[in-house]
Design goal:
CATH class of the largest domain: Alpha Beta
Number of domains: 3
CATH superfamily of the largest domain: Ribonuclease Inhibitor
Radius of gyration: 32 Å
Strand order of the largest sheet: 6-7-8-9-10-11-12-13-14-15-16-17-18
Oligomer: single chain
Strand content: 15-25%
InterPro entries: COI1_F-box (IPR041567), F-box-like_dom_sf (IPR036047), FBXL15_LRR (IPR057207), Leu-rich_rpt_Cys-con_subtyp (IPR006553), LRR_dom_sf (IPR032675)
Protein name: F-box/LRR-repeat protein 4 isoform C
Pfam family, one: F-box_5
Helix content: 25-40%
């Protein structure tokens, strides 16, 4: 009806914003924003992305945009593109009769005296600080050839935009402080592009972790290897386009490397690891997870070249076997921690070599390695004084191996023997007699262990035992559960089926018992 603004009267802000979001084109949104000041204000709230080119004063432009659009999550600034600020906006910020200067970015004939004017064409640290202040919800930022941005501006961005997930610094000149700030503050960062950042000076970079950088290639890794000579700690996780070539450059360029983790980088293989073994003599920790292309020769070379290796982790490396472990044992006599999971080619021979030569080993985990049996544990017990042992799922291990550990490793504090179907009460009795420092034990799925075995176990370990997991132990009844909780004054956690806990036990120590969720 003429004279009545039914839409503005009846529709709340939230509904109008949703309508604006559903408009199918920018031109329609722009037209709608011209209807009235309310629609202009609400339409601006629907804008999530802006694209900015080189202008007479990019810092001013960002300041103006930040004041108008508060819900921006994506910003693209490309100084190869020429964009002018409307004259009335420039005059609004100008003093006297002067106005914002606009330059031809392709003019190559300017004098040296024009350098300060030419600098105004580029986004500065001040402009980047304004961007961070104005767009705190920022998740994706592209700064293309923003040559005046330095670490100072990048640090301001990092402190304000902690939700940043994607950062493209293609052609920018940033250094150690800026990238370090991004790493410290932007914990959700998933994508980082440093392409054409030849001026990037990260000479002091010591730690770099790249997780799921899907577009990161050997070119970027080679740049790191050639430029970051002080790099000590490197994690490469799910970077599918990296290969041996990139890791070779890291190895030859970053000779101070002490920690290396390669996780799910399926194109990195034996040759890349061989380069690490040849060049990274200070390597102390190595983790290889889901590396199907790395074979024995790679670890043999690590054994020959990395004499200071103290920790090795292998997970789902199907091509690594006994030859690799023998090589590690021969060369890495300082090994203290060895964790292996689902490496089915590793058997008794490799673990026996470790027991015979790695006398400093205190932390051993061999999970679901179905070729490792009692002989391996006997060798470990004879050569090493373990504090931590996990042999979950190694079905060839029985009483003989665990008894050897009990007698040879009196300092044992943690033991996981879950899913060992051949393990029985005799081993429990030996643990109780010889391992007085045992604090945590996992017995789940050990069907041969009974209440009798538990009684012998806690008889010797009762004063220090704090945790006992024993779900799906068919030989254990409510009597065994009661024995554990009543005999161990420091017990803090017992994991068991609920039906095995008597009401009396529940009343006495119900707070320390955790139940397996299951339908009965």
């Amino acid at each position: 009806m003429r004279g009545h603004d039914w839409i503005n009267t009846l529709l709340p802000d939230e509904l109008l914003i949703e309508i604006f979001r559903r408009l199918d084109s920018k031109s329609n949104r722009d037209a709608s924003s011209l209807v009235c000041t309310r629609w202009l204000r609400l339409e601006r709230l629907t804008r999530a992305a802006i694209r900015i080119g080189a202008s007479g004063s990019p810092d001013l432009l960002i300041h103006l945009l930040a004041a108008r659009f508060s819900n921006i999550t994506t910003v693209h600034i490309d100084e190869r593109l020429s964009v002018s600020i409307p004259a009335h906006l420039g005059r609004r910020r100008s003093s006297g009769n002067s106005s914002v200067k606009l330059h031809d970015v392709n003019d190559k004939h300017g004098s040296a005296s024009d350098q300060s004017d030419l600098d105004s064409l580029c986004l500065s640290d001040s402009g980047l600080a304004s961007l961070a202040e104005g767009f705190p919800k920022l998740e994706k930022l592209r700064l293309i050839w923003c040559s005046n941005v330095t670490s100072e501006g990048l640090s301001s961005l990092a402190r304000k935009c902690t939700s940043l997930k994607s950062l493209d610094l293609q052609g920018c000149y940033v250094g150690d402080q800026g990238l370090a700030a991004i790493g410290q503050c932007c914990k959700q960062l998933e994508d980082l592009n440093l392409r054409f950042c030849e001026g990037t000076s990260c000479l002091s970079l010591e730690l770099l972790a790249l997780y799921s950088f899907q577009r990161f290639t050997d070119k970027g890794l080679c740049a790191i290897g050639n430029g970051c000579k002080k790099l000590k700690n490197l994690t490469l996780s799910d970077c599918y386009f990296l290969s041996d070539k990139g890791l070779e450059v890291i190895a030859t360029g970053c000779k101070e490397l002490t920690h290396l983790e390669v996780n799910g980088c399926h194109n990195i293989g034996t040759l890349g690891l061989e380069s690490v073994g040849k060049s990274c003599q200070h390597l102390s920790e190595l983790a290889l997870l889901y590396c199907q292309r790395i074979g024995d020769a790679g670890l043999v070379q690590v054994g020959q070249g990395c004499k200071f290796l103290q920790a090795l982790q292998l997970v789902d490396c199907s091509s690594i076997g006994d030859e690799a472990m023998c090589g590690i044992a021969s060369g890495c006599r300082n090994l203290k921690k060895l964790h292996i999971r689902r490496c089915y080619e590793i058997g008794n021979k490799g673990i026996i070599a470790v027991g015979e030569k790695c006398k400093l080993l205190t932390d051993l985990s061999i999970r679901f390695c179905d070729r490792v049996g009692d002989r391996a544990l006997i060798a470990i017990a004879e050569g090493c004084s373990l504090h931590y042992l996990n042999v979950s799922g190694c079905h060839l291990i029985g009483d003989a191996g665990v008894i050897a550990i009990a007698r040879g490793c009196p300092q044992l504090c943690y033991l996981d023997v879950s899913v060992l179907q051949k393990l029985g009460d005799i081993a429990m009795a030996e643990l109780g007699e010889h391992c007085p420092l045992l604090k945590e034990i996992v017995l789940s799925h050990c069907r041969q262990i009974t209440d009798v075995g538990l009684a012998h176990l806690v008889k010797g370990c009762c004063t220090v035992l704090e945790s006992c997991h024993m779900v799906y132990c068919s030989g254990v009844t409510s009597v065994g559960v009661a024995t554990v909780v009543s005999s161990c004054p420091n017990i803090k956690k017992v994991l068991v089926e609920k039906w095995k806990v008597s009401q009396r036990t529940q009343r006495r120590v119900g707070s320390v018992i955790s139940y397996l969720c299951m339908d009965l």
